[in-house]
Amino acid sequence: MNPSCDKTLTVAPHRVYTGERPCLWIRTAAGPATGFGHLRRCMILAETLLDFISPLFLLSPQDRWSREQLSGRGFEYFCEGLDETWLRLREPAAILIDTRDGDGLDRFIASARRRGIPVISIQDFGLNPLPSDLVIDGSLVPDFSHPEFPYGARAFGGPDFMVLDPAFGKLHQKPKQICKTMQSVVINLGGGDARKFYPRILGGLKLWAQEVEAVGMRGFVPWGQERLEQRNWHPVRFRWDSGSADRLLSKADLAITAGGLSAYEALCAGTPLLALSYDSFQATTIRAMAAAGACIDLGPGDRLDPGRLAGVLSDLACDDSERRRISRNGRKLVDGRGDERVSRLIRQTIGERSGMADREFVE
Predict the structure, then answer these.
(1) 48: which residues sit within 8 A by CB, 6+ positions away?
(2) How far is CA 33 from CA 139, 278, 286, 339, in A?
(3) pTM of the entire structure?
(4) Which of 187, 207, 312, 185 is CA-nearest to residue 252?
(5) Is the pLDDT of residue 151 over 90?
(6) Tens digits of per-residue pLDDT, 324-360?
(7) Burial, 107: exposed, middle or buried (Cβ in 10 Å; 0-12, 13-18, 19+)?
(8) Which domains does the chain show, CATH number per domain?
(9) pLDDT by residue (tens digit) across 232-248?
């Protein structure tokens, strides 16, 4: 039986556990091919849950990208095969899985279910559906129509459950100023190799022929960012910035992103969004955003015509009312509090399994 899609937050209020913190195993992955969104979501949830659980990341031995990011944040991780976890580690209170890499997960989840350990999976568009007790799909088009989900599984879907950095929930509460003129653009194409897309975007900005500051977010993979910055994009003033996305978006007049987490961040910030897709899944996301009036769909990134982009920019520059409309519609879709909702669901799942007494919690 398929689980029902519940978009309401019917979970226990936030409480702090005062006993020994249970362990949460987190299986995820990152890299140029898989992207960095899965890892980012898991790190955000781990941070949010630190007062309640001890997170331990389970990584593929080949996943140096996740190791680098986790080491920099002080998280513990285990880099052997999934079968080894049961022999080498103490059993967790629950397991969180957010990855498209399904290698070995069938046996791993079967072992967890034999032990009565709840499995929580985060997915997008129903990709890599897993036999989980709690299923979360924060995309605009969640899909829970999979026989892999066991009877009684709980499912929560829609952008209310999209996990973003908590800074975006705070940013969403602040008014977004839409100026008469567009003077700054933030370009965020994710953490991977974006060398095919940046020249097309910057070429479109150059053809627009307006003095504008364009700030690119470097990502995690080196692909020649320095060489791109050295090219002549006049009258565009282009530079890279490694700062926080919420800070950059709060100041920008326009955002150009891919269709992953960066698009949801722009909607939450209320920054008028132009979005291009890397693949068919991102294309589905962007079409849904555009249908809701929350962005302008630029189509596939590898086919983006700089001339068409220049035309879109010219139209928007002359129509601040349209930019206000896009900003309002984006904020209606994403409020940036998905991390709170998902972390509370995880707390509830662990609390129910562990039989934690009320006396072990403080309000």
Answers:
(1) 166, 339, 340, 343
(2) 20, 11, 20, 25
(3) 0.90
(4) 185
(5) no
(6) 999 999 999 999 999 999 999 999 999 887 655 333 4
(7) exposed
(8) 16-164+336-362 (3.40.50.2000), 167-333 (3.40.50.2000)
(9) 999 999 999 988 999 99
